[in-house]
Every structure is written in C-alpha cells, then in structure tokens.
C-alpha cells in the first residue's frame, strides 16, 4: 500500500510559492543598482574613445563637441594679403616706403640697360637688367618676348631659393645684347621676378665673374657734349665790376701791342 506523505507535499508547494519572493528580491536588487552609488561606479568604468578619458562616452565628449563646432564654422575661400596704399601717412607706411627706396638705390650700381630678341628676329626689345651675383641661373620675365616651342631647348632646371623650396623653370634660347655679354644665350622664364621694374636677372651662368662693365679706354681724348649742364659740376658764376674792368684793361693792352 502506497502512502503519500502529505506533509512533504505541502512543503514542496510552499517552496514553490516561496520562489516568488526570491524573484522580487532580484528585481529589488536591480533597482538598487540604479542608485547614485551604482551610477558613480558605472561612470568610472566608462572610457571615451576620442579623448581617452574616463567617466563619459564619445557621444558626451566635451572636447569632441568643441571640435565639431570649429569645423562647422563657415570658411572663406578668398586669399588676402596686406597692402599699404599711397594715401596712408602713418609711420609704418613711411618706413616701408623709405626701406623700398633704400634697397632700390642699392641696386642702381648693378642695373643696366640692354636688348633682347628671338634668335632669328632682328627686332630688339629694350629691357632693364639686374646683375645678380647670388643667382646661378639667369631669369627672364615672362611676356616680354613671344616665346614658343621653337625657342624652347626642351629642358628645364630646378631652382632653390632661401625658403628651400624647389621650382621647375623652363629654359628658352634668346638673343641678348648687354654691357657684360652679347649673343645667343639660354635663360629661364618666370612669370614674375623679385625686383620690380627688372626684366632680366643676369646670373653667374652667363656673366661668370663679371659684375659691372669694364671701362673702355681710348688713345685719344673724346669730347662728349651733354645736352644738359650739371649744376653741381658747373655752378653759376658772377662777374664783378672789378673783374670786368680788369678784363677791359687786358684787352686794351693787347690792342696796343
């Protein structure tokens, strides 16, 4: 005969009913994890993927937000450069003008006039030449002559300036007539030159060791008449009455003799 232990059955049912409060205890524990203490603990375990600092995520990163604000600002596409107009009379503009005039005055001993043309053309174009003793390549201002593939030598040269950057300069063959060199020469062509008013920078490749033109000496003196008298060399003189009377006496003595 099988006897079911009623007491044990009740205990099992009691355990089943007791399992519900256990589940409630779990939910209660999860509620406690959202307390401020757990929030502090959770932030300490977070690391930002952008700034690598602890306590926040990249979505809340203050540094990343500042960077995005700077990147989103409108940017201008125009390039500006400082320019001093002639109407300004401030000391800074006057100093700029005086320094410009000073170095132009220093260039005068090395500047000369010359002529250039295409090799096969007899029409000479007047130019202003600056002897540059620090240049290893002579440079011609672009647009002075109608250069083409016929004048090109099919090569270029790499030039390096004080900024240590290299530029590729095409080479052309032209005819040059100057005090230092005359004949067909090969020069580099640039859209602009560093000195205003200069058409050709005459470098050491053409002028070699010549800096200024050598003086020409003749065996017989040459009388050169200048259309304008120099006031500094020939100052105006005043003839006094005594000098005029003396000149008259000398003339009378010559007539008597």
Automatic annotation (TrEMBL):
<protein>
    <recommendedName>
        <fullName>Peptidase A2 domain-containing protein</fullName>
    </recommendedName>
</protein>
<dbReference type="InterPro" id="IPR036875">
    <property type="entry name" value="Znf_CCHC_sf"/>
</dbReference>
<feature type="compositionally biased region" description="Polar residues">
    <location>
        <begin position="22"/>
        <end position="34"/>
    </location>
</feature>
<dbReference type="GO" id="GO:0003676">
    <property type="term" value="F:nucleic acid binding"/>
</dbReference>
<feature type="region of interest" description="Disordered">
    <location>
        <begin position="1"/>
        <end position="34"/>
    </location>
</feature>
<dbReference type="GO" id="GO:0008270">
    <property type="term" value="F:zinc ion binding"/>
</dbReference>
């Amino acid at each position: 005969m099988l006897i079911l232990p009623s007491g044990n059955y009740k205990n099992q049912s009691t355990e089943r009913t007791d399992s519900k409060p256990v589940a409630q205890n779990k939910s209660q524990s999860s509620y406690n994890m959202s307390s401020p203490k757990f929030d502090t603990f959770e932030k300490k375990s977070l690391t930002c993927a952008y700034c690598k600092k602890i306590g926040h995520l990249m979505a809340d990163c203050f540094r990343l937000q500042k960077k995005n604000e700077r990147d989103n600002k409108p940017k201008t596409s125009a390039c500006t450069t400082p320019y001093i107009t002639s109407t300004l009379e401030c000391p800074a503009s006057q100093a700029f003008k005086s320094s410009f005039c000073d170095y132009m005055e220093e260039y005068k001993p090395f500047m000369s006039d010359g002529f250039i043309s295409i090799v096969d053309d007899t029409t000479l174009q007047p130019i202003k030449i600056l002897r540059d003793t620090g240049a290893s390549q002579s440079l011609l201002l672009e647009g002075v002559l109608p250069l083409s593939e016929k004048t090109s030598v099919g090569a270029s040269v790499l030039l390096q300036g004080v900024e240590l950057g290299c530029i590729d300069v095409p080479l052309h063959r032209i005819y040059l007539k100057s005090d230092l060199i005359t004949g067909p020469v090969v020069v580099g062509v640039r859209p602009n030159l560093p000195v205003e008013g200069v058409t050709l920078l005459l470098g050491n490749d053409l002028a070699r060791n010549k800096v200024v033109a050598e003086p020409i000496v003749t065996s017989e003196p040459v009388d050169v008449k200048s259309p304008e008298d120099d006031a500094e060399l020939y100052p105006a003189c005043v003839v006094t009455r005594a000098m005029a009377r003396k000149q008259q006496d000398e003339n009378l003595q010559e007539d008597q003799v």
